[in-house]
Design brief:
The protein is an alpha/beta fold and 369 residues long. It folds into two domains: 4-175, Rossmann fold, CATH 3.40.50; 183-369, N-(1-d-carboxylethyl)-l-norvaline Dehydrogenase, domain 2 (Orthogonal Bundle), CATH 1.10.1040. Helices cover 49% and strands 12% of the residues. It contains 16 helices and ten strands. Strands 3-2-1-4-5-6-7-8 form an eight-stranded mixed beta sheet, sandwiched between helices. α9 crosses α10.
Length: 369
């Protein structure tokens, strides 16, 4: 019997995840407190999201939305696989999964949390071994990555999550050791701090032009707009709460981000963030590429810190970056192309100017140079 899926949260991520399952032939219940969010999700499912499926080479059905039930009620009683994609607040996620446990006993529970460790949620549940990380890169339809795993999740749950990710055309990467931000968002978090330094010398479109030249599908500010500046701000706050100074950045960048969120310039979902958006596309001014060596160096540095922390091996970190960005190579490959000594010099220079921890070269990177 085919699995029945529930996705909780009809925002940017949840709506896309629901359509991926429906496109693969699963019956899906998409739940959100907001009827407006559900209407917007259904509109995307009948329009731009179909174009994304086509672009990703995943489209199997003319009308996958016909397999989705849109509801404000927590209908999970008969579901086999439940994905949480709600606001990035730990208390809210714990409360939701407790309610799900009260209504449903056999399902695999999956969290698309951007920053929290799955065990931070699972340890508050009656059956913590049933909850796995199930974290997509943004935009979920176009990017192949799904990070799966956790330290207290059962092997059976991980195997099921891997199977489900593959069934919707994704490439799962299993992470057995936890950290806030997993592998992908720790690197993106480091980029988020470092890019504030780059903005002292260059405009967003100049930085994004350079990153696209390096093989990334989207520039950094375009990615922020896709994620949503409110979500990115929540994730960075979660990191600073847990890691301290490591994710402290340029104060002017923090102030600017806070003001953009306050003004409702959240990115693609509001029609304007760093760029103006017309449907799926951002209006990005033509620009000469900036020197983004400090930004790339900070991402490489964090990649090796992840390895030092025992979260994942170099090969896995490299693969996560490649799948998350749809670039032709991973971040370790990029480091070897640019040269480790060049990256060390960029980090030392940026650290001497700013004192930001993100630019302090780690031991592994220095040894590589």
């Amino acid at each position: 019997m085919e699995a029945v899926i529930a996705v909780i949260g009809a925002g940017t991520m949840g709506a896309a995840i629901a359509l991926l399952f429906a496109n693969a032939g699963f019956e899906v219940t998409l739940v959100d407190k907001s009827r407006g969010a559900l209407r917007r999700a259904e509109d995307r499912h009948r329009g731009e999201s179909l174009e994304e499926l086509e672009e990703a080479g995943l489209r199997k059905r003319d009308n996958p939305a016909s397999l989705i039930t849109y509801t404000t009620e927590l209908r999970v009683d008969e579901c086999d696989f439940i994905v949480e994609a709600i606001v990035e607040r730990l208390r809210d996620k714990i409360e939701l999964f407790r309610k799900i446990e009260e209504r449903n006993s056999p399902a695999v529970l999956a969290t698309n949390t951007s920053s929290f460790m799955p065990s931070e949620i699972a340890r508050h549940l009656a059956n913590p071994e049933r909850l796995t990380l199930f974290h997509f890169s943004n935009p979920p339809i176009l990017m192949p990555l799904v990070e799966v795993g956790g330290e207290i999740v059962s092997d059976e749950t991980v195997e099921r999550a891997v199977e489900m990710a593959k069934s919707i055309g994704k490439e799962p990467v299993v992470l057995r050791k936890e950290c806030r931000g997993h592998v992908l968002n720790r690197m993106l978090g480091a980029a988020g701090v470092a890019v504030g330094y780059c903005l002292l010398y260059s405009r967003p479109e100049e930085i994004d032009a350079a990153l696209r030249n390096l093989g990334m599908r989207y520039g950094f500010f375009e990615t922020l707009d896709l994620i949503g500046l409110d979500v990115a701000k929540d994730v960075l706050e979660s990191f600073r709460e847990y890691y301290g100074d490591k994710y402290r950045g340029i104060r002017a960048m923090d102030f600017f981000m806070e003001k953009m969120v306050e003004w409702g310039k959240l990115g693609k979902k509001s029609g304007e963030g760093f760029y103006k958006w017309d449907g799926r596309r951002a209006s990005i001014p033509e620009a000469n590429p900036a020197d983004v060596t400090p930004l790339v160096a900070a991402i490489v540095n964090e990649a090796f810190r992840i390895v030092e922390d025992g979260i994942a091996e170099e090969e896995i970190v490299n693969r996560v970056y490649r799948l998350a960005t749809n670039a032709p190579y991973g971040i370790i490959d990029a480091a070897e192309l640019l040269g480790y000594q060049c990256l060390i010099e960029a980090l030392d220079d940026a650290f001497n100017k700013t004192g930001l921890e993100v630019f302090r070269p780690c031991k592994t990177l220095r040894s590589k140079a």
